């Protein structure tokens, strides 16, 4: 077995020396101890470690986080060591994408398990990158040999690239010169695996420019000279110097860009450009992959640009190649074509085939469980156990038994052996919903299970190996929870291997019409009522509302309208849209509530009482009913199980309000 070389970057000698002795006892080779950025930088010039144990705070002005940037560029794995959980430090550390995080003090077993996981992840990340490159190479080779029109070839190229290089708009072009006019193909992403081809005709129509003005823009746009990626201010400069890219950015609301120029065998200069609506999307890894594919892309693209081609005047094309059709990826329950949701689905496609842990974040009601279902349905573990656990609904006294199981007689009431959720999920996937509600004691136990890949039943004396993929979800800001000491930093890094954030409905208003019509048809069919459409007035209101309860609130609103509809006219809003019971409880009132608080205990007590008042008010309005239309959970825009859990914590009994 190959020796593993470790560099320790730690400014406390006693800690560093203890680490060295532990690692050497386990067969690792410690190539050095560095107390500062300067010493560490010098060491990696002469010795190449497999992994670096990196303290965040070092001697001197430069930190471990700054050194992590160098390690990233050299593709060296690293694990942070720190007792600091400050939110600003956490955000900076997270941005460097570490392979693990150990919070001081830590056990020897935790150190060794974290190292194993980090080295495993690093090796498999490299393997995954190589598989990605091989897959794209093969796809582009096939595309270059199939015989169909230029548009078909380039559309298939866009589909192949989209899986690994995100973009909302792609341009493949030959700039104008003294010898030839501009010639280009441009595709705008309009849905998952669907594109509209945008030619000069379309640009004239959308932008409102005169044809002479367009000719001036095409003639004045220079050829790309070198490969690169451009975000924020750099993208602004690119657009300032290239009128056509400026037009693309303005017309389609684009905010970042990556380009790859190359010359054909005939010496013709061509360029591939990817654009995104995100302001800071592209990085060195994207560019590295694009440059790696340069020869393969060149073979495909140059065949689409005959020497005497004129200006491209094209129309919309949808899947023009019957011999190489789309993969028809299906996401049940996901409705929407906004760029925000398309980005989420791209991430789902990337992570689903892997065995990587996923953290799904987003406000309540955004559809985190639906995305978890999509990941499972497109994974290699599809068809195997998929166990869902709502962490908020499990009482603190029972959660360990629920997750890990218990032996007969292990506690009062344990009359039989019980198989826990993790053991039930063995060979498959476990979905830990609302993981941010878990107690700190339980977080420690969960972390050890995730690290060691083994469980021990309550009251048991032996460990049980498990093979479980973990998908977690939360509506909390876990970084803030960490900074306030309510969530463990090491567990956060353990589950946050591949984050997916679901945007709130107010940030994807383009999807409100599709969602509304989908719910209206579905609910009408359920109630055996004819669907009569949605009135323009109602749709305008739906699209202008901010939706604090997100999709769940929209669905409830549509259900109310369907129930009250006479089936003779389109749906209309029978009740005004507002956050029921909370329309006067904005920031100003909340601020005044806390104005008399003098200590953190005061604030916590006020917060508890305020939450209690909200729940009691909702229960009174619903006559003690929690579930269903008009129930307290719907009024509060919470899952019924979440509401029940909070009621237990606050000592609220629904029977008192029946």
Helix/strand structural class = alpha/beta
C-alpha-based Rg, rounded: 28 Å
Oligomeric state of the chains present here: single chain
The end-to-end distance, rounded to whole angstroms, is 68 Å
Number of helical segments with 4 or more residues: 26
Query: What is the fold named in CATH at topology level of the largest domain?
Result: Rossmann fold
Describe this structure in words.
With 658 residues, the chain is an alpha/beta fold. It folds into four domains: 5-127, Response regulator (Rossmann fold), CATH 3.40.50.2300; 147-302, Transcription factor LuxR-like, autoinducer-binding domain (Beta-Lactamase), CATH 3.30.450.80; 339-503, P-loop containing nucleotide triphosphate hydrolases (Rossmann fold, 3-Layer(aba) Sandwich); 580-658. The protein has 26 helices and 18 strands. α5 runs antiparallel to α6, α9 packs across α10 (243-252) and α20 (512-526) packs across α22 (550-564). The chain is globular and about 90 Å long. Residues 309-327 and 579-600 have low confidence and may be disordered.
